[in-house]
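S.,

Sequence below, as promised.
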Amino acid sequence: MVETNNPRLLQNHIDGRWITPTAADFLDVQNPSDGRVLASVPLSCQADVDQAVAAARGAFRAWSRTPVAERCGPVRKLAELLRENFEDLARQITEEMGKSLPDARAEMKRAIENVDVACGMPTLMQGENITNCASDIDGEVLRLPIGVFGMIAPFNFPAMVPFWFLPYAVASGNTFVLKCSEQVPLTMQAHFRLIEKCGFPPGVVNLVNGDKVASQSLVEHPDVDGISFVGSSPVARQIAEACARTGKRCQALGSAKNYLVVMPDAKLDRVVQNMLTSCLGCAGQRCMAASAIACVGDETYQQVCEQFTAAAKSTSVGNPLDARFEHDDLAVGPVISNDAKRRIENLIQVGVDEGATLLLDGRGTEIPGCDGGHYIGPTVLANVQSGSTLERTEIFGPVVIILKFDSLDEAIAAINQHEYGNGASIYTQSGYWARRFKTETLAGMIGINVGIPAPVAYLPFGGMRGSIFADIKGQSKEVVRFFTESKIVTERYWPEDDLGPRA
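The prediction came back faster than expected:
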């Protein structure tokens, strides 16, 4: 590890002010590309979370009564500032998370897109009404803000994922406490420097740094009305259960094992490049990354094994801030930590021990001048069987498994038998096969000749089965239902006696 002198000590942002937490423990924030220490992040305790929640609770009454168009004013200002600082924010993501600059820029675009959508809250949270639902009786559904919401964010999208929730929560009249990942806290520090300039009243938007202690404190806090979480399925299940016990609303998005199904009629000259982006972008560290390629037929399997492996072998691996890679969409950067690297390398060996054929081995990758970096090169394993450890496990690295099936039915059955159901894609020119795939495959997000079927911000984001523990998904108009309570009003009025004869 390369140390820096006096690393920057990060702070929480509570009630409109930067505050040094009472935390006694701190964690080094490393650049995963070279091991440099970028900052020291405090691990906030229960008292720090209590302070943030109290600020949010204190701000809720006045903020919820602010006209919705006025609430959207600071949100519009935030979108403007994010655009003005776009490149700096993208580079901050790359420095502390390790994804390529093209990937970081794409993340920022999607974050801004969500803020733009939330600016439509005067329309998004409109209710419904019906006149004469009974004789002289009208019915109405009001959508009202609820209170304080918390969000626990993952490391892999430090800008985008919080914005699946934050702008919608505050634009709809709630207040918000964000617990960012302790591995990548600098991105939200930069964002909150901009949020300070937007005109939100103190306490409406708050930031807490920390690890699982802060997360648990937020989940269990009696004054928090709902929790949004993105991470692994085991933790998502625990959070959903904790929220159920205390009557909180909960969105808990979890793990994935996303399949790319390649049919015999697929345009392989175009498909291979698309699959590379899907499998290796962000070094495979995204919930929409494809890590399993399912080939239908012997010939398709042989061609994909050969062509995909050759293409993966030619991709660049290195420090994503190296000028050579600044515009390289397929450059593979480091994984987030040395622990993650060891875990991924161990899984590769498990796959080999279980009988998989190692077509490309990315272990032992070294980058000159980046001795402290956490690099694994693209890795491809063929002859992987359904039900094996590699097929069942979310690897979360630049590791791709290739499986062979005799028919589309077999491929769909393998996907549907899996614990997770986040996303899945098919490559085909056949409308019949495509229609069967999108209707029969048990995954929440489906792609047709699209390797990363992550929906734009106007549509909901979320999986199915073991990939989500929630009834309402993230982003778009859908998430407004999570942040508002539907109140049903049934009303009737009789004529006043002093208004003369009845009509």
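The domain at 258-448 is CATH 3.40.309.10 (Aldehyde Dehydrogenase; Chain A, domain 2).

Coffee later?
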